[in-house]
């Protein structure tokens, strides 16, 4: 797959003419609209003193080559903050409380809708973007796709409960991704609160807070009583100054999908976070394997925006489907380019789930093949009513099994079962698990014709049980 000289130039913030000149010196005659293959592109990127960031193999091949922007093009941007911690320690309450620190709320109208992220402006004028999707699932989904959206993790630990299993999980996630932690010791208003004990406990996990002579900031807060919020915001600002967060706003936009859904009235809606560049209404965007022309950009106050720069979350309308959280998006120059990218990605997906292109696709057939040792992986397609349940089901399914057999979800998305799902399932020989959704008529007919099994569920445990039982049957010693 290819990238045009012009697009490569845009991505490097260089002039296309300079690339043409360079190639001419190499004995290659090209014009700005000509395409280059990935190897050539990479060579040029390096030759121009930029670094090639391999977002993923497919992205490189499709031209999603990210190069560093020149230092002088970058401007300070707001930090993107995720709140993590054990259940009931106050993540949601803290996110709600932090909204109230927004001084822009008065004039512009308060935050009216949940879009997966919001930005507040502090008294100092500094801005902070909070990812409003508590839980580690979204965070790890983004990480697993190589899209690091988070700059700082706020680790919420309840002062009356101390470090708990999900606290440790959160610490591990943050550490693995190299994101700095700020500890918010919450619920200090409670009579049985013991903040010092929390700080002491954290030592075991190599989190040495300032109060203990270390470098990690720890702020006592009460989300309920709205205490310590300014101090927490200051800590975030200080940390982001240390990180020197910057991005080039004057280039075509790139970023990451935070959340998505198919809205009855508005169609597919995705909340994206711009990482660099500026996204504008009317531009053509590819997000994962979906694409579309940005029909509207809406912020968390329900207001229409003309454009969105770095660290600014926005809902985009106009995509042809709901992309998965954690997938990258980028503006492309034309519809044909968008189609090319999306086709490529869909093909890749199918190829990846290869090896089983013949025969039908039911759970039984798949098991028979597994028994014959043809495949060790149980490929599955999951469709669900909302993104959250699609994700919950996939991650639970992927935890099943052992070294001999495991489930691999090749596609999980919100929305009813469509023909394209059936085709994907057919090529990968996998059944479709439909959770609280139905298949439309065309999809049902196609499934029947192709021998693809669609299994309907309304209880998550039933999905897991079915797969588990089948796997166990498979693993049981023969005769
Ligand atoms: P999450 O599961 O981490 O999102 O936790 P929630 O925000 O839902 O809070 C769990 C419970 O703790 C709720 O009943 C909150 O009202 C309560 N809570 C949260 N923050 C505080 C706090 O600062 N002080 C007290 N006393 N209760 C709190």
What attributes does this structure have?
six-stranded antiparallel barrel; binds guanosine-5'-diphosphate; alpha/beta; 479 residues; six-stranded mixed β-sheet
What does this structure look like?
The relative contact order is 0.09. The strands form seven sheets. Strands 7-8-6-9-10-11 form a six-stranded mixed sheet, sandwiched between helices. Strands 13-14-20-17-16-21 form a six-stranded antiparallel barrel. Strands 23-22-24-25 form a four-stranded parallel sheet, sandwiched between helices. The model is unreliable at 54-65 and 354-359 (pLDDT under 50). With 479 residues, the protein is an alpha/beta fold. The N and C termini lie far apart (51 Å). The protein binds guanosine-5'-diphosphate (GDP). The site of guanosine-5'-diphosphate (GDP) has 16 residues, from helix 5.
pLDDT averaged residue by residue: 82
Strand order of the largest sheet: 7-8-6-9-10-11
Distance between the termini: 51 Å
Q: Tell me about the largest β-sheet.
A: 6 strands, mixed
Look at the helices and sheets and give the structural class.
alpha/beta
Count of DSSP helices?
16
- Overall geometry: globular
Rg from alpha-carbon coordinates? 24 Å
Bound molecules: guanosine-5'-diphosphate
Low-confidence stretches: 54-65, 354-359
Summarize the structure in short:
The protein is α/β, with parallel strands linked by helices and 479 residues long. The chain contains 16 helices and 25 strands. About 4% of the residues have low confidence.
Write the layout of secondary structure elements.
Blueprint: E1 2-4, H1 5-12, H2 16-25, E2 35-37, H3 38-47, E3 52-53, H4 57-61, E4 66-67, E5 75-76, E6 80-85, H5 91-99, H6 105-108, E7 117-121, E8 127-131, H7 136-144, E9 152-158, H8 165-177, E10 181-186, H9 195-203, E11 218-220, H10 229-243, E12 246-247, E13 254-263, E14 267-276, E15 279-280, E16 284-287, E17 290-298, E18 304-305, E19 307-308, E20 313-319, E21 328-332, H11 335-352, H12 363-371, E22 377-384, H13 387-399, E23 406-414, H14 419-428, E24 432-435, H15 441-450, E25 454-457, H16 460-475
Parallel strand pairs: 6-8, 6-9, 9-10, 10-11, 22-23, 22-24, 24-25
Antiparallel strand pairs: 1-2, 3-4, 5-12, 7-8, 13-14, 13-21, 14-20, 15-19, 16-17, 16-21, 17-18, 17-20
Helix pairs in contact: 7-8, 13-16, 14-15
Bound molecules: guanosine-5'-diphosphate (GDP).
Guanosine-5'-diphosphate binds at residues 85, 87-93, 134, 186-187, 189-190, 222-224.
